[in-house]
Every structure is written in structure tokens, then in C-alpha cells.
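Structure first, sequence second, as always.
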């Protein structure tokens, strides 16, 4: 049962978002998640927050392995909404467009090095979605672990939808990467 409460949530948040617009002394970015609600509701969220002058991002629902999980209707909505947004740093590579078009968007995943995910148990994992392949206690995590994970091949990377891991890894697209093999 997806998206039955998105409109209710947005309606309840409108006054708070207006207050935030009037009083925030920091940049506010609101994310619409395609696949978590009906596509027209995601579009409504993006339109409303842009009217307020906030930044807007579009994220994609993924499965428990961080892989794309959207209907064809969701994919069309994604393309529609992204076309309305200015291109900013987190979306600079266009990897989401490649993924929604059914093409892998490979990158050199830097999970557990440039991007460090620590779960509620104090374990370092590749990311929030891939907890069963590799983990280590944060207190035991060393500089050598950072180096090793920086170059480690991650089998899920080509179709990963996790923006945080991709954004943190994106810096490496513009310089040579010795020691990386896919």
C-alpha cells in the first residue's frame, strides 16, 4: 500500500515548510521519492517546495539490495520531474537517468572509504542496504580498512541507486584510479 498518506503529510507540513522558508538560515533541500507514492504526488511535492524557493531532489525507491524497483509509470514520472529541475552537484553525472532507462551506470564505489555508513550497532557496512556482505566494528576500523575498501570491487555498484554512496564516489570519475578493477 504505497503513497496513501503523501498528500496528507504534505498538507500537514505546508505551514511548517513556509515557516522554515521564512526563518531558516541554511539551505533547505526537500527530496521527492519516486516509487514511494503515486507519481503525481511526487510531482506535487517538488512543485510546492520549488515555489517556496527550496532546492528539490528526486530519489528512487530501491529494493533491500539498493537496486532499482520502479514501475514504468514511476519511471516516466521520474523523467518528467527531473526535466523540471536545475542540474546540481548530486545529480551531475546523470546516473539516475541511465538506471531508469535500464542501462547500468557503473562507477567506482567508494563505500566504506569516502562514504562511511555506520549502523545502529556501531558496525561499518558498505551502505545502509548492503549489510550482509561486509561489516566491521567501528572501533576496529583502521586506515588500512579505508584504503582496502577504497579499491574493493562491489558487485552491486553498476545498478546502485543509493545517491549518498554515488555522490561521495563521484569525485573519482575525473581522475585516474590505479588499482581499481571491475
Amino acid at each position: 500500500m504505497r503513497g496513501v498518506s503523501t498528500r496528507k503529510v504534505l498538507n500537514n507540513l505546508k505551514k511548517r515548510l513556509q515557516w522554515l522558508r521564512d526563518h531558516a538560515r541554511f539551505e533547505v533541500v526537500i527530496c521527492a521519492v519516486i516509487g514511494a507514492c503515486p507519481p503525481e504526488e511526487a510531482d506535487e511535492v517538488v512543485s510546492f517546495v520549488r515555489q517556496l524557493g527550496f532546492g528539490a531532489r528526486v530519489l528512487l525507491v530501491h529494493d533491500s539490495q539498493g537496486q532499482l524497483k520502479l514501475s514504468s509509470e514511476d519511471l516516466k514520472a521520474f523523467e518528467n520531474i527531473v526535466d523540471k529541475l536545475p542540474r546540481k552537484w548530486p545529480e551531475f553525472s546523470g546516473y539516475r537517468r541511465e538506471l531508469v532507462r535500464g542501462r547500468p551506470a557503473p562507477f567506482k564505489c567508494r563505500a566504506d572509504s569516502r562514504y562511511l555508513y555506520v549502523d545502529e550497532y556501531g558496525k561499518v557496512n558498505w551502505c545502509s542496504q548492503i549489510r550482509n556482505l561486509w561489516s566491521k566494528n567501528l572501533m576496529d576500523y583502521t586506515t588500512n580498512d579505508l584504503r582496502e575498501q577504497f579499491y574493493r570491487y562491489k558487485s552491486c555498484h553498476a545498478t546502485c541507486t543509493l545517491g549518498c554512496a554515488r555522490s561521495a564516489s563521484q569525485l573519482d570519475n575525473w581522475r585516474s584510479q590505479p588499482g581499481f578493477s571491475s
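Margin note: The mean pLDDT is 79.
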